[in-house]
Design a protein that fits this description.
With about 110 residues, the protein is mainly α. It is built from 4 helices and 2 strands; from the N terminus they run ααααββ. It has a two-stranded antiparallel ribbon. β1 and β2 form a beta hairpin. It is extended.
């Protein structure tokens, strides 16, 4: 298994030229299906499920669907700046953390 994400990405591109399919899907819907199969319905439902009727999760997905990530190619990346401002506070890089209450169901 590659040590760095760039190696994994390169492996996908290189092998794709011969028609090989990646070990892990790049389609998030397919990855979710494989994850559910691997974990089983209990652990998967705990992590992928939503509180209440799921209206907040649906609204979040709809908001995210309206956004597009446009990679900037062929740019000078000698000096990189990943700083972001979150709730009025400057952070050195984008950061997202979420607690999992019963992590042992994911990694018994």
């Amino acid at each position: 298994m590659p040590k760095h994400w760039a190696d994994f990405q390169y492996e996908i591109y290189l092998n794709g030229m011969t028609g090989a399919v990646p070990r892990l899907p790049t389609d998030l819907t397919r990855l979710e299906e494989l994850t559910e199969r691997r974990l089983g319905p209990g652990p998967f439902g705990y992590v992928a499920g939503s509180a209440g009727d799921g209206s907040t999760a649906r609204a979040n997905r709809a908001a995210l669907a309206r956004r597009r990530i446009v990679p900037r190619m062929l740019r000078d990346v000698h000096e990189r700046d990943l700083r972001v401002e979150v709730l009025g506070r400057d952070l050195p890089a984008p950061l997202a953390l979420a607690p999992v209450g019963v992590l042992s169901i994911m990694h018994p």
